[in-house]
Amino acid sequence: VKERGKGHYRFYQPEMNADLLGRIQMDHAMRQGLQRGEFELHYQPRVDLRSGTVPACEALVRWHRPGQGLVMPGTFIGVAEETGLIALLGHWVLQNAIAQAARWAAEGRPLQVAVNVSALQFQQARFVQDVADALQQHRLPPHLLELELTESILIRDAEEALGKLQALADLGVELSLDDFGTGYSSLTYLKRFPLHRLKIDRSFLVSMPEDGADAAIVAAIVQMGHALSMEVVAEGVERPEQLQRLHALGCDHYQGFLFARPMPADALRTRLASPDGK
Ligand code: C2E
Ligand code: CA
Ligand code: CA
Ligand code: CA
């Protein structure tokens, strides 16, 4: 406590707590933003080159923060996880992604939507029920929803996670393991858990094909995924050379700026409807 003259005390030190204060303010602004409709989902297509189709897209949250333009999740998801607001935000994302997938299905252009799930959200006792309720409410065929989980979710409480994943898989929801290779990479759960796909983290692609070690890791991931009957998705594909190499290594699906950046739902719809898919 700093003295500020007679009878006046400052109960915080600005330098020390600027970070904390900033996070509290951001939490407040996010809560308000959720109520005011400032959040929006963008969708990035996932491409299947063999069939030339877009079987799915990933929902990625953005925040139209007043006075700050379009704010990317890298700046606020971490804060939302710390303050616990991610439970509310995650619920909003799930509801909206499912509603959008249901609209596309009703328009006769079904497109699976993948939703990122954060650890705190997954750990909530009502998570599976939340998903089941949202699917039913929007009458979405469950296979049109994919949940993207990270390795940290799975290892935290493996037994409980296994039960939840099994329940989700029983609903008919598809499950993918996101950012594969960056976490703990315990291979035992890959066999035990009902996962439909692996998403190879972008960091392994950055220096491909020049870096032989990265290419070897990608090759191993692809083989392992296939041996366990999983599809393998490469994310963050930016250059034709990367794609060529990934294709040679047997990757199944691709996502990345080379094909498309994340975009609003209407833009994706328009793009998929045009003859050349561009
Ligand atoms: P992620 O799940 O690994 O999502 C992929 C990120 O890579 C996205 O960033 C996407 O825009 C970006 N990306 C896609 N293709 C390329 C590429 O070719 N090159 C490069 N450099 N980047 C590419 P974004 O949208 O900024 O999201 C960042 C992270 O924020 C996500 O990483 C995810 O962990 C988190 N996130 C986003 N939306 C949500 C959400 O709704 N819920 C939760 N829990 N987390 C989310
Ligand atoms: Ca993801
Ligand atoms: Ca990822
Ligand atoms: Ca990532």
UniProtKB/TrEMBL annotation:
Question: What superkingdom heads the lineage?
Answer: Bacteria
All copies of the EAL domain together span 23-276
Protein name listed in UniProt: Diguanylate cyclase
Identify the taxonomic lineage of the organism of origin: Bacteria, Pseudomonadati, Pseudomonadota, Betaproteobacteria, Burkholderiales
